[in-house]
Specification:
four-stranded mixed beta sheet, Carbamate kinase, eight-stranded mixed beta sheet
Length: about 270
């Protein structure tokens, strides 16, 4: 079992990933696909006159400022445009793909954060109207039912809060939770960089391997969105996943290359 998370940032094309995935799935490999939608959400928000806003936590993690209107835009972009585009790409390659959000079937269930601490102009503030949260439970039975029926689940945020509200959950961490719940042996996180970089944005400074004992140092080294990816890798490894690979989605055969260890391997 493999869980593959495809990044939603600019520069990530689905065609190469789907070209690589389709033969594996058709041959019988059980794969669950998770994706983000940050770039599409940004562009839709701009078109709707609601430019995206981001906040940084005191620990240095950056996330989208998600008020009530933004969560609606996020769902339109991520569950609608991005999810269905990826499903169509897989269907065109004879893969029986089924698109779901974390809301469907209470697939990703978690708590909404009713108070978020953010650093603004050097001061820590508290935000209380944000619709973000974390995935605490995964409906693994639903995913296994789909896989047993020969379908390939294609999953996107948002998740579902305990109050049945949509919540913006981090797709990397949701993929990690999904991999743990399914007992996956490998989690691949594909993005628009080759992996963890020692000197971002210099792509020649790739860190090829990170041992479990080195994860604290890796989190300190990571910049921007890579911080969440390293955190997701930690959660996957601690949850029983044998190997996580942070790899490049911009190359030919990105999944095969990642399985060969071409990226940052955390094991």
């Amino acid at each position: 079992m493999i869980v593959i998370k495809i990044g939603g940032a600019a520069g990530v094309g689905f065609e190469r990933v789907c070209d690589d995935l389709a033969p594996r799935i058709i041959a019988g490999e059980r794969i669950v696909v998770v994706h983000g939608g940050s770039d599409e959400t940004n562009r839709l928000a701009e078109r709707l006159g609601r430019p995206p806003r981001f906040i940084t936590s005191p620990s240095g993690h950056t996330s989208r400022r998600t008020d009530a209107e933004t969560i609606e835009i996020f769902q339109m972009a991520c569950c609608g445009a991005v999810n269905k585009r990826l499903v169509r790409e897989l269907l065109s390659r004879n893969v029986n793909a089924v698109g779901l959000s974390g809301v469907d079937g209470a697939l990703w269930r978690g708590r909404r954060k009713h108070a978020i601490r953010a650093v603004e102009d050097g001061a820590v503030t508290v935000i209380r109207d944000d619709y973000t949260g974390t995935v605490d439970r995964v409906n693994a039975d639903l995913l296994r039912t789909l896989l047993d029926a020969g379908a390939t689940p294609v999953l996107s945020p948002p998740g579902l809060s305990e109050e049945h509200e949509p919540i913006n959950v981090d797709a990397d961490r949701a993929a990690a939770r999904t991999a743990c719940a399914l007992g996956a042996h490998t989690l691949i996180i594909l993005s628009n960089v080759p992996g963890l970089l020692r000197a971002f944005p210099n792509e020649s400074s790739l860190v090829p391997e990170v041992a479990r004992a080195e994860l604290d140092s890796a989190e300190e080294l990571a910049q921007g969105r890579m911080k969440k990816k390293v955190l997701a890798a930690r959660e996957a490894i601690e949850g029983g996943v044998a190997r996580v690979v942070l790899a490049d989605a911009r190359v030919d055969n990105p999944v095969s290359r990642a399985l060969e260890g071409r990226g940052t391997v955390i094991a």
